[in-house]
Amino acid sequence: xxxxxxxxxxxxxxxxxxxxxxxxxxxxxxxxxxxxxxxxxxxxxxxxxxxxxxxxxxxxxxxxxxxxxxxxxxxxxxxxxxxxxxxxxxxxxxxxxxxxxxxxxxxxxxxxxxxxxxxxxxxxxxxxxxxxxxxxxxxxxxxxxxxxxxxxxxxxxxxxxxxxxxxxxxxxxxxxxxxxxxxxxxxxxxxxxxxxxxxxxxxxxxxxxxxxxxxxxxxxxxxxxxxxxxxxxxxxxxxxxxxxxxxxxxxxxxx
Length: 255
Hints:
Layout: H1 3-20, H2 29-116, E1 119-123, E2 126-130, H3 132-146, H4 150-163, H5 170-183, H6 187-200, H7 207-220, H8 224-237, H9 242-254
Antiparallel strand pairs: 1-2
Helix pairs in contact: 1-2, 3-4, 4-5, 5-6, 5-7, 6-7, 7-8, 7-9, 8-9
């Protein structure tokens, strides 16, 4: 039973009890009626007060229930936000790691690709583009020649020819192969190689030296007539070349 109903019932019981009792048992008739009316008024006032308090209590209870419900929702939202923040932190960390891995991968791939990218080089005063591996292979073979390892140098340059038949280094490769043969006193191979250079690359800056080496190889092999003819061609075709003076000196020795 609510406070309102309890108070109302108590007040009604009291009023009925007073109304049923003989008036003279308590007061005179006028006094009894007056007392009953006064009591009834007070009871009614109390009942109204109780009703007001009950109404206020109802409002408070409703507000409290609403606040409790709202607080529960707020707590639930806070928990969900905390959970989502945790997920975001985990995902952000995973994203950061993925980005680092991708960056490392791209850097590695870029580095690998750069090893195969063509590079600009100067070959006998001409700027050309060659493959990086091609350049390294050529330079390694040339280093062997300069170190005096002529046989291995010839083998390396011949391997280069097989790998890069159309290389911008082709004229130089033939020159160094012919020079290697000459250094190894394989004059026949030297003559053949230098002759090939002159046939394939007549305008090469190496042509005067190749023709001079061919004439010297012919002289060393005992073919003085061929040597003289070749050396005379050097003087006639390349009057301003450094090889021309050596050709003249050798011609003088052949007479």
